Each structure stands twice: as structure tokens, then as C-alpha cells.
């Protein structure tokens, strides 16, 4: 059980944000001179070239510089694939979900041919956001807002509230009043801009600059066999929580991907199940990091004994057919740069991280349940328990992430060395170094070997 309540953590995060506003106003101080993007990248490249045994934490300016964040937006986030949603969040034709991503107002919608489209919300007439957040247009005209979910809705078409142009669900302009005298204007040639998108194992990705050299399926192909066991396309998001987070996206992804901190932040929640010292990373890959968090032997024994008595140890019924290690561990995956998820023997957990600046992000934490779990008559009780557990360990992560971001600005900041249990932190540096050279890890140097011989 976490030491904090959710409301405690939410108000502590707001407090941390206030303190950060002060710190970023007074500057980073002489201990941390302002560095150019080139200087930050040169230092990241230098560290990425070191052997893992000499690895150290990234320089603090990589977490505080606005210019570096802007570099990441253009060279990492817009250039790569970003996961916007799971198919179960837009299950029926006409369902849509709005998301503002790196300055682009977007709609994810299931169109009339049952295809998922990622469209711009910017009207091709005079640039109105057709559903501007906060102005009550989430359910404008014929669209119905989904209860309690701002930015989500269901509609037959999209209506721009400015001059009432209407658009089909695939973005095509349907009607535009009083345009008959505009010479050379052809309605069929006009529509909301469509972004390149792809569905992979039930997750919907967008590539904002349209230039990613590989498809999602190609870049994550070596995960297919493993993921297929869960049948994630048939899962459903059954827990969703939004968090305003006063920290850099790398503070969160690094925290998500190293389990050394089970020994500290999660000492009473995760450490007793999955001790930090047993966690390990697979060999380095070009497009993702994969870590294993094995259950401790005593716990495996308990699970086997309970199952022999016909009892269920997991919160949800375990995913059918999981064998060997997959039945007795959690698996962490970071699809570069920011597709963050976790597979457990009975569920999947996905974090949508939406970076908003060097020290700000919006986070959606979710839990996905299998059809078998959802069919269970006790599903609602199980779901509530799963939600409690997922929030419990997230509250512990919120504490450390808020506090780490503040440390990045401090005059007393010192860069630390990394434990062998923090290989992901070093791999994220190697990813950024590779991106800065226009390539990907393992394409620019030999892959780091697996930590399990
Ligand atoms: S700006 Fe959308 S109809 Fe004019
Ligand atoms: Fe954690």
C-alpha cells in the first residue's frame, strides 16, 4: 500500500509545479550554465560512446532547456511514431478523441468505413480549430460529448463553428455555404489534413511529419510473437486517469524503464514481488527497450500452490496460454521515443505521455483488460482492485519524478553514475545520440548485449 493518498500526491505535484515556475524564472544558476542544443547533444553523444560500465546520468540541461525540448519535438516526437490511443477508446463508427500534440490540434476518429483516421482540427477555410478545447465545442452541433471525458465524443460529421463548413468523418469537406462564387474552388479537393497513422496490436500511432522511414509494424516486428500471446487488439482500456506532471518526459520514461528504484520508491509495493536486483534488460534494439522483472522464487511457489487449489492469484484471470517466464514476471517495453507499456500475466498497462515543455507533461495512465477478464461475473470488483493497485504504485513514482525534476535546476545538482540495473537510462542516451546523427541505436554501433547470459 502506498504511503500517500491520491489527493496528497495531486496537491504535492501542483506545489512542485509552483516551485519549478520560480526556479525556471531565476535561471539555473552558475552551477548549470545555459548550453546550446549542439553542446547538449555533443555531451549526450560523448556519454553514449562510453561503455555501459562507465555510464552516467544525462546532463541536467537535457531536462530543463527549452531549446533542447524544441529539438526533441522536431527530431524525435514529430519524426517518429507516437501512440495516441488504443482501439477500444474509439470502438464504434463516429467515435472520436481530440488530442493536442506538439502544437497540432488533432482528432482521432473512426470513419464510416470503420478505418481509424488521424485528422487535423484546423479548418481549411480560415484556420479555426473546429473543436477548440475549453470553449464547449466538444459536442458541438451533432456531436455528443462522452460523459466525463473531455475531448471525446461521437458524431456523424464535423462542423466548424466559425462559418459552418461541415466535414465527413474521413475529413472530406461535405458542405460549405455561400462558396458558389469562389472561382476555381472545388469542394472535393478540400478537407481536414490527414496524418499518417497505423494500428499495431490495437494501439493507434501517428507520424506527424509523415517521414518515418519504417512502419510501426516493421520497427517493432521482433516484439510480435511475444505480444501476440496477450491479444492486445481485443483488450479494452478499463482504467483511465489523467495527471498533470511537472517533469520532463525523460524523467518519466527513465523511471518507467528502470526497476532499480523498486528498492526505494516501491519498497513496500513492488520490491517484495519483483526485487530490483533480479531485473534485467534484453539486448539493445534499434526501436525499443525491453526489460524483465521476474517474480521472486517464493512468490512463484505461492502462485503454483494457489492455482493447484483452483484459486486465482492474479487480480484478473491470467492471459490464457502464457508459459514459462511470461507467467511469472512483468515485462516493460519502451518503443522509442515514448510508447511506454507494461505487460503483466493478467493485464497490460499503457501510459500516454504528452510532453508539453521541458518541465511539463500530461499523462494518461491506463489499464487494459482481456475479454476473459471482462466476461468474468466479478469483473467490476477485479477492475476496482486493479485500479487501486495501478494508482498505488503510480503515486510513488509521481513523488520521485516531481522531486527529480526540481533537482535538475539546483545549484547543488551533481551528475551521478549508473548502476547495472539502470541500463535503460544509458540506452535512452544512446537513442538520443543516434537520433542526433540521423540514425537509430544498433545502426550506428554494435548492439549492447543482453544482461541475461
Ligand atoms: S474557419 Fe471553418 S468554416 Fe470558416
Ligand atoms: Fe516506479
SSE topology sketch:
Blueprint (H helix, E strand, L loop, with lengths): L5 H21 L10 H13 L11 H4 L1 H12 L4 E5 L8 E7 L2 E7 L5 E5 L23 E2 L6 E3 L3 E2 L6 E2 L5 E3 L18 E7 L2 E5 L8 H4 L4 H5 L7 E10 L3 H9 L22 E2 L6 E7 L2 H12 L20 E7 L3 E6 L2 E11 L2 E10 L1 H5 L3 H31 L13 H14 L17
Antiparallel strand pairs: 1-11, 2-3, 2-6, 3-4, 4-10, 5-6, 7-8, 8-9, 10-11, 12-18, 13-14, 14-15, 15-16, 16-17, 17-18
Helix pairs in contact: 1-10, 2-11, 7-10
Can you offer a commentary on this structure?
This protein has 453 residues and is α+β, with helices and mostly antiparallel strands. Helix content is 29%, strand content 22%. A hairpin with a 2-residue loop joins β2 and β3. The radius of gyration is 23 Å and the shape is globular. The mean pLDDT is 94. The site of fe (ii) ion has 5 residues, from loops.
Largest sheet strand order: 1-11-10-4-3-2-6-5
Class derived from helix and strand content: alpha+beta
CATH class of the largest domain: Alpha Beta
In N-to-C order, the SSE pattern is: HHHHEEEEEEEEEEEHHEHEEHEEEEHHH
DSSP summary: helix tally? 11
CATH fold description of the largest domain? Naphthalene 1,2-dioxygenase Alpha Subunit, Chain A, domain 1
**End-to-end CA span:** 35 Å
Helix content: 25-40%
Number of strands: 18
CATH architecture of the largest domain: Alpha-Beta Complex
CATH superfamily of the largest domain, called what? Naphthalene 1,2-dioxygenase Alpha Subunit, Chain A, domain 1
Query: What are the low-pLDDT stretches, counting only 5+ consecutive residues below 50?
Result: none
Whole-number radius of gyration?
23 Å
Task: Tell me about the largest β-sheet.
Answer: 8 strands, antiparallel
pLDDT averaged residue by residue:
94
Bound molecules: FE2/S2 (inorganic) cluster, fe (ii) ion
Binned strand content: 15-25%
* Overall outline: globular
- The tally of structural domains comes to 2
Amino acid at each position: 500500500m502506498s504511503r500517500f493518498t491520491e489527493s496528497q500526491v495531486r496537491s504535492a505535484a501542483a506545489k512542485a509545479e509552483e516551485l519549478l515556475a520560480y526556479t525556471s524564472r531565476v535561471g539555473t544558476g552558475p552551477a548549470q550554465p545555459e548550453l546550446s542544443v549542439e553542446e547538449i547533444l555533443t555531451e549526450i553523444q560523448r556519454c553514449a560512446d562510453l561503455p555501459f560500465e562507465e555510464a552516467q546520468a544525462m546532463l541536467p540541461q537535457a531536462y530543463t532547456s527549452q531549446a533542447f525540448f524544441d529539438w526533441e519535438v522536431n527530431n524525435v516526437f514529430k519524426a517518429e511514431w507516437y501512440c495516441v490511443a488504443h482501439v477500444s477508446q474509439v470502438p464504434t463508427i463516429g467515435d472520436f478523441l481530440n488530442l493536442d500534440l506538439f502544437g497540432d490540434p488533432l482528432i482521432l476518429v473512426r470513419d464510416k468505413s470503420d478505418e481509424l483516421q488521424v485528422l487535423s482540427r484546423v479548418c481549411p477555410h480560415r484556420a479555426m480549430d473546429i473543436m477548440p478545447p475549453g470553449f464547449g465545442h466538444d459536442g458541438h452541433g451533432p456531436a455528443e460529448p462522452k460523459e466525463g471525458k473531455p475531448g471525446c465524443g461521437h458524431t456523424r460529421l464535423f462542423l466548424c463553428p466559425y462559418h459552418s463548413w461541415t466535414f465527413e468523418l474521413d475529413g472530406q469537406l461535405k458542405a460549405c455555404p455561400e462558396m458558389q462564387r469562389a472561382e476555381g474552388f472545388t469542394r472535393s479537393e478540400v478537407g481536414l489534413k490527414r496524418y499518417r497513422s497505423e494500428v499495431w496490436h490495437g494501439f493507434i500511432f501517428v507520424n506527424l511529419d509523415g517521414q518515418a522511414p519504417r512502419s510501426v509494424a516493421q520497427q517493432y516486428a521482433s516484439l510480435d510473437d511475444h505480444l501476440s500471446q496477450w491479444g492486445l487488439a481485443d483488450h479494452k482500456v478499463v482504467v483511465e486517469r489523467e495527471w498533470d506532471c511537472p517533469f520532463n518526459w525523460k524523467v518519466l520514461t527513465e523511471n518507467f524503464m528502470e526497476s532499480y528504484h523498486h528498492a526505494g520508491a516501491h519498497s513496500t509495493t513492488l520490491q517484495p514481488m519483483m526485487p530490483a536486483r533480479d531485473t534485467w534488460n534484453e539486448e539493445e534494439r534499434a526501436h525499443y527497450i525491453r526489460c524483465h522483472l521476474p517474480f521472486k522464487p517464493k512468490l512463484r511457489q505461492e502462485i503454483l500452490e494457489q492455482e493447484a487449489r483452483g484459486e486465482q492469484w492474479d487480480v484478473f484471470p491470467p492471459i490464457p496460454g502464457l508459459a514459462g517466464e511470461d507467467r511469472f514476471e512483468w515485462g516493460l517495453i519502451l518503443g522509442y521515443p515514448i510508447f511506454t507499456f507494461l505487460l503483466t500475466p493478467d493485464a497490460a498497462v499503457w501510459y500516454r505521455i504528452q510532453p508539453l515543455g521541458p518541465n511539463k507533461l500530461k499523462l494518461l495512465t491506463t489499464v487494459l483488460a482481456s475479454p476473459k477478464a471482462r466476461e468474468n461475473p466479478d469483473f467490476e470488483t477485479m477492475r476496482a482492485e486493479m485500479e487501486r493497485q495501478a494508482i498505488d504504485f503510480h503515486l510513488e513514482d509521481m513523488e520521485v519524478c516531481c522531486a527529480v525534476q526540481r533537482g535538475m535546476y539546483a545549484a547543488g545538482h551533481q551528475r551521478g553514475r549508473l548502476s547495472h540495473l539502470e541500463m535503460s537510462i544509458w540506452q535512452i542516451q544512446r537513442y538520443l545520440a543516434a537520433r542526433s546523427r540521423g540514425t537509430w541505436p544498433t545502426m550506428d554501433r554494435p548492439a549492447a548485449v543482453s544482461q541475461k547470459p
